[in-house]
Fold:
Amino acid sequence: MIMYLLFLSPALLLMMWAQWRVKSTFHAGDEVPANLSGAAAARHILDEAGLHNVEIEETQGMLTDHYDPRGKVLRLSPKVFRNHSASAVGIAAHEAGHALQDAFEYTPLVIRNAAVPAATFGGGLAGILAFVGLMIMFMSKGPLGPAILLLAIVGYGAVLFFQLVNLPVEFDASARAKRLLTEMNIVDQQGAAAVNKVLNAAAWTYVAGTLQVAMTILYYVFILTSRRD
Structure:
């Protein structure tokens, strides 16, 4: 357990910092006014791209904002949906960016969507396989435990592939949001700076998630190689 925490500590510390950064920058950006509410900004961006079919709904929770490609629905949390602030329009524009990616078949998004079933199945099964494999390895020295642990690593590999493909998807959505908010005069120079801080902070959460999966794989590879030695 101590060795596991040592492997994951960089990712966990980065995630804690990133989540704190998102909350702090969101709070600061919420004090910077914008010309439109988050919902209105997203609607404007979607309509300008001809995506009149994409609906915008308010959803409950804090920063639960997301785009549903199956239902063609952009769901925004109350503060993002209603507030006329840099934080609200920044996050709303980011999610609208995903709708644009979906409409114009942005290649990394297509790959990410195709990888969802494998990542979901692999991630759910990997934890169970890792536990079973480690228990068998603890009780005996046969090949079954390492073989099961290797399958767990493959499952985590599917999750890591999904996370790696997801990074350019998220970075591109943020880049689109920053550019469109400025071009459409939804934010001024001060608002653009606040949007930049909020979306950059959010990007670090995806980096931290990717690092966590990578370090988990390295930990189990370490266990396997140590066993063989």
About this structure: The chain has one domain: 2-228. Strands lie at 55-58, 66-68, 73-76.
